[in-house]
Amino acid sequence: MTGREATGAAPAVIVQVDRDRCIGSGMCAATAPGSLTLGADGLARPVREQPTGAAGEPLTSELADAVDYCPVEALSLYGVRDGRRIDPTG
Amino acid sequence: MSAENSATGARTGTATDPGPAGGGTAQAVLPPLHCLRLLEPGPPRLAALPTGTPVWLVSRHADVRQVLTDPRLGRAPLHAPGAPPVSLTPNLLDDPSSMLNIDGVEHQRLRRTVQRAFTPRAIARWRPWVASVVEGLIDELIDRGSPTDIVAGYTRPLPIAVISRLMGLDGLDSKRLEHWSDHALSATAYSAEAIRTAMTEFAGFGAEVIAERRAAPGDDLVSSLLAAAADTPGITEQQIVTLVIGLVVAGHETTMTSLGNALVYLLSDGHDAWQQLASDEQSAAAATEQLLRAVPLGDSDVLPGLLRRAVEDLDIGGVRIPAGSVVAADTDAANTDPEVFTGDLLTELFSPLAAPMYTFGAGPHHCLGAWLARMELELALHRLARRLPSLRLAGTVEAIDWRRGLLTRSPQHLQVSW
Ligand code: HEM
Ligand code: HEM
Ligand code: SF4
Fold first, then answer.
1. Which of B292, B278, B262, B288 is nearest to B382 (CA)?
2. Domain spans of chain A?
3. Test the A interface: residue of B106, B107, B108 with most A CBs within 10 Å
4. What is the pTM assigned to this prediction?
């Protein structure tokens, strides 16, 4: 339950919510309230909508946990630098 | 009180027609589940539960999603002191310590102890041996020979066999688990006394398994659940016991019911699809989604949908719902809302869903076992169609003897031949 400790500086990531998959469980918003929230439509969205080329946000252990606990795997993380998908369990 | 309200009247199809196959009793012939006439979606409307408690019926696709995801509606307030009665027969669905009946932070804490084991990726790892359980049951079915009862030999034992392997339980426990789950879920078939006795024994069994795994942890679901619970402050021993035995019960009736009713459809009106089900797993996966969407688990004369209670005033679909109201999300109506789903089941059977379906609910209580249930159904249908391509009903749909649970209806027996 502790999440992964970031080694050195946490990599900057962009969070994406697949809103066709999201079932609005609210798990992510409860686990990583700094990164994810529930919108008025009951579905999750990133707290900070990131325009392309943005600085992203640090991959905290809360955020990694949120990705892992999503019941429908609707969350994904992309590295800001290379745009590659990051699998926090990996 | 309830006879004329829309909660009870709208969904029974031809249930009041006198039936030709009553077997000497005056019992009416019930339509198969894929032929129910569902509630016409519309704005929330007031009806009554069988207990007489007023209930707001919510039926449109978007409104059902709101009911299930809006934090102003909860499960816990249904069981708060002074809450109006919502069920005639007390059952452990009403157990306030169960995950289904707590909300908010407390719910999330309990749910997190098991969620990691139930994500799509985690479940995918169990695929080979879910397949082996399925194949084993088909072997036994074939050994028994045609004709045979596919409920007794396949749809009923499958969910228990799967969950007991997940939990690392001895194969010998299957019969006992089936007995307990049957009692827990069949409100009509057993006396209250018999149900109480079975539940006490079941809880005792759960406590034993927990003690064993604490002493000698393995890589099974119970051990990982205990490890997660040990890391999580504030989880009570009773919650852990309810969780462990609840996992057996929650998947039993539901999965057996979906599979039984899917087979009634596929061996009658949907028979043209049988061959394609056998062809590949992707087709079976698509068909599973469509069947889960379009074939209801039961009639809604006892419970018209997934229940919630409003903790404050709110608007749903343009209608003001006062604080304290009981609300029912009619997922069957939402799943066939013509605003969203237009095609007919047989032509769409192998197409992706036009929109999310709510058979597994949505929001914080979205079915924990959804991905396991999907995998079981998909493999059960695909492998059966592959091994028995000529499978057909040995009797008529009209003659089916229905098993009625609190929320569910599925064939008690289903004679098939090949
Ligand atoms: C076709 C089979 C199944 C169907 C249709 C189904 C349906 C549902 C629905 C509708 C809910 C939400 C109830 C509500 O919001 O009021 C739910 C919750 C739940 N289901 Fe399932 N279920 C199925 C199979 C399973 C299986 C196989 C398991 C266990 C391994 C399971 C475990 C649970 C649990 C633990 C909850 C409570 C979750 C919570 O409150 O957070 N279900 N299910
Ligand atoms: C020994 C424990 C339990 C008993 C006796 C029990 C009893 C029942 C009963 C009577 C029903 C109605 C089924 C029907 O249609 O006939 C039901 C359904 C259901 N149970 Fe349980 N239950 C138990 C534990 C749990 C637990 C712990 C959970 C989840 C955490 C759970 C989740 C469900 C779900 C999701 C349904 C499906 C329908 C709905 O959402 O209302 N059950 N259970
Ligand atoms: S955890 Fe997943 S399903 Fe739940 S709200 Fe977040 S993104 Fe949606």
1. B278
2. 12-85
3. B108
4. 0.86
